[in-house]
Task: structure prediction
Amino acid sequence: MFEERVYEIMTLTHFHIGAGESLQASIDFVIQGGKVIVLNQGALADIINEKGYLKDFTEKMLALKGRFELNRYLAEKHLNTDEILERTKAYTLDLNLGRTGVTTPIREIKAFIKTAGRPYIPGASVKGALRVAFLYNLLKRLDPEPRNRFFKRILETNEESRLKKQRSKKEVGKAIDEILLSLTLPGIKGNEPHSDIFRVLRVSDSEPLDPSVLEVIPVKVLTGNGSKTKAVEFVEALKPGVTFKVKLWIDKGLLEWFKVHNPHGIRYKGLEIDFEYFEKFFERPFAFSKAMIDDYMQGLKDKIPSLGEHSANLRLGWGKGQIASTVFNLLPDDLKLYVRRRYFGQNTLIPISKKTFNSELLGFCLARRLKLKTERSP
Result:
């Protein structure tokens, strides 16, 4: 039996979730009248062929390669009329350059994840945020002795990996979480199906959204204290104020299985987590997420503007930072510095880079419960 909860999530700042796909100025889109027009490749080929330019188009694109600009070619051949673009477009997005007036040429746009051409928010992104929030708050409530045991294990893990290839930030952040996340039952190995308590939670994808909820924005990658721009990346981003729904299901049968097989709590190398705490987490999961966000924003209060009147309780998508979005923030300062120096050659506690739009961090959202829990299967 599954216990269901429905949540509405509203974006407070822009956020982007990608699937590895990028749109190229050489073939995928044109910019006209403050709009990014993403083209249907089949329809575009039909028009170019119909006008007798297919051979010329192909030869120039192959000759110029990455320097070929579809926008310029269509203008030269008078194929950028409203009528033709209407016939060939897949979808159109607003181009929002923000207050800073970015002048960087738009050669590539990171696409938002979509299904059948419509953006959506994967349930895995929401579940990942909740998983880290749970670990974050679990670590905060541990007594000094088990906390220190956990910190010591991180040092041992880092020492063991010295001879291995240097990890990426994503791998390091994940490794730190995995040390605390491996909530194994007595006598059960960590790679067995029921060794991870978060298997009791399922999160649905959001409903597909209309492409109009997206716009193209320039994201600045800031370095140091935020005074230098390392790079500008253009992305399809969900606008602030957009709402979507997700469902959370708790597998009560599997949760009971954990209780029966581990009556004293969930053990990890002497750390004990009572099931009462785990169930309490799911009564107000986004309140627990808020504690993590508040701590993170406190550390950046002099570097990045606040969210104003809104108070985020969830952060999703690209741009969070692989270390900032893990329990890394709760490590002692000396251990934080050790990890940064060991893997990335960084001698500062402040994140070495931040992704922003209009001086705002990306991905902050507000979640609220929509209806009472029900008993049903997903």
The first strand starts at residue 2 and ends at 11. Residues 162-166 have pLDDT under 50 and may be disordered.
